[in-house]
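A reminder from the course coordinator: this example appears on the midterm review sheet, so study it carefully.

Given structure:
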């Protein structure tokens, strides 16, 4: 039996072959589609209502609206591209149904009630040749994202030794060709005192020259890649200043862009101008947010999200005693260390001066320095080596180079040192050490006080003050019970405030808001 909805009944006594006059276009459907006790007229009215609702959504979408109001329990329609894909899938599905117009409407609406996988392109700009805290944070984010909701792709400006860090995540890795990086323009740091009145103009001229010769060529290389990948969001993993080419390319390609601000750097007029087009800027600490505001950087939205640590993966694979034996340490020999890449602002020289000051009280103290030498920091590394030889610290200081077993190494130390001479935006090594139950002695600047609770999970000291650093280290080395209490509280603080699950949930919430969901 076939019901014809919206048709007038034939008058009594008329020929059975008389065709009814249609009030609306005929919509045929199986009789089973109508609920028992519901009249055909009421069913037709509901169908027309449903189709008008879908038509209104489509009309608003074609008219340019990117965010549509929820109605009738429907999920928000989030983007034009997503709607086009949904309509194509719905047409294919509806073509197999007897009632095509109604089936098309229902298929479209059901599509937006179901979860949609969004594509996130994460961009790592660093060209140091090493894996630093910025890239490590992105890797943790990729592992924490819900794979059913987000498909991630990582874009690197140079090949990095990831060592299987993304295994099992489904994340693709792309490397930008060197030919697309543009010509580097060195930054002039020497000012001519005789032309002091022209300093500002010369700085601005240099910024414009760098923008034209370096930023624009890179942005032109990125635009075709963005159009080919068609991401729903471009997530820039470094500062706005470092990722300015990514900001420009995303705006040219008309892709929503999120900048993950991980630096405390100065901003000029060009950076401030392009920052206005950033859909969201995520600051890794409140110190970074305050710095951006003080610099006059005004993206459309500012948010603070602390980086997280994958506690399930970041754990030692070997016993601390085994690692200490490999390092040539006795079971009760005091050991401190740093596990950051070697560059001037990280303060390895301050740590070595503190070790020299502790030599008399702790004659068997050993300091290990793990981390590779950042490109361009070779003179600084040579100066560290000269200091060790000049102070006869050769038996106390071990340069280990890059290490892939950071959890094993940190677990073998008594105290972990953070001695940055400039304000640190975050300090990933701090949450890594604290997660392993190690007390930290850290520079009291930047975002560090948001991580380390002075006197409870570690000790904060003034930057560049090797005397204060030596005093704090000596206090902890003399008191094993205090180290144990601090370590336990540090571990609990990381689990509560700096887990990768908390980090990923916060980022997914921001992604959803950017996409209109």
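Designed residues:
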């Amino acid at each position: 039996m076939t019901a014809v909805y919206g048709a007038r009944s034939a008058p009594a006594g008329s020929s059975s072959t008389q065709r009814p006059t249609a009030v609306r276009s005929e919509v045929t459907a199986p009789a089973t589609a109508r609920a028992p006790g519901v009249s055909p007229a009421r069913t037709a009215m509901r169908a027309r209502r449903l189709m008008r609702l879908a038509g209104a959504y489509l009309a608003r979408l074609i008219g340019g609206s990117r965010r549509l109001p929820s109605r009738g329990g429907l999920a928000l329609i989030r983007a034009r591209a997503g709607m086009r894909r949904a309509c194509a899938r719905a047409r294919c599905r509806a073509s197999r149904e007897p009632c095509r117009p109604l089936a098309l409407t229902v298929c479209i609406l059901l599509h937006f009630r179901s979860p949609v996988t969004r594509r996130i392109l994460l961009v790592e700009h660093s060209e140091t040749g090493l894996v630093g805290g910025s890239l490590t944070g992105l890797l943790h984010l990729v592992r924490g994202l819900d794979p059913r909701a987000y498909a991630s792709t990582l874009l690197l400006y140079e090949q990095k030794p990831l060592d299987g860090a993304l295994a099992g995540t489904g994340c693709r890795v792309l490397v930008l060709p060197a030919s697309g990086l543009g010509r580097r323009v060195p930054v002039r740091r020497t000012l001519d005192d005789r032309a002091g009145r022209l300093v500002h103009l010369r700085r601005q001229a240099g910024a414009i020259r760098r923008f034209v010769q370096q930023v624009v060529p890179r942005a032109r290389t990125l635009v075709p890649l963005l159009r080919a990948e068609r991401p729903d969001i471009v997530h820039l993993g470094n500062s706005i200043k470092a990722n300015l080419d990514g900001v420009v390319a995303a705006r040219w390609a008309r892709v929503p862009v999120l900048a993950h601000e991980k630096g405390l750097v100065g901003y000029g007029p060009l950076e401030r101008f392009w920052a206005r087009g950033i859909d969201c800027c995520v600051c890794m600490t409140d110190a970074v947010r305050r710095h951006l505001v003080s610099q006059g950087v005004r993206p459309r939205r500012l948010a603070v999200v602390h980086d997280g640590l994958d506690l399930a993966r970041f754990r030692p694979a070997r016993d601390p005693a085994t690692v200490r034996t490999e390092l040539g340490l006795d079971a009760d020999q005091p050991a401190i260390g740093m596990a950051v890449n070697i560059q001037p602002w990280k303060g390895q020289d301050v740590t070595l001066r503190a070790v020299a000051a502790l030599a008399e009280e702790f004659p068997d103290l050993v300091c290990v320095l793990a981390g590779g030498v950042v490109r361009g920091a070779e003179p600084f590394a040579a100066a560290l080596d000269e200091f060790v030889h000049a102070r006869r610290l050769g038996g106390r200081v071990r340069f280990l180079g890059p290490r892939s077993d950071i959890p094993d190494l940190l677990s073998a130390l008594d105290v972990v040192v953070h001695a940055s001479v400039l304000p640190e935006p975050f300090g990933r090594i701090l949450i890594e050490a604290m997660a392993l139950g190690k007390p930290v002695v850290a520079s009291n600047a930047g975002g560090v006080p948001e991580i380390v609770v002075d006197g409870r999970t570690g000790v904060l000291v003034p930057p560049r003050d090797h005397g204060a650093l030596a005093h704090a280290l000596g206090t902890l080395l003399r008191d094993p019970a205090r180290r144990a209490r601090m370590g336990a509280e540090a571990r609990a603080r990381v689990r509560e405030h700096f887990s990768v699950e908390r980090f990923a949930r916060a980022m997914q919430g921001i992604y959803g808001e950017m996409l209109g969901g």
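The first helix runs from residue 40 to 62. The domain at 320-498 is CATH 3.40.50.2000 (Rossmann fold).
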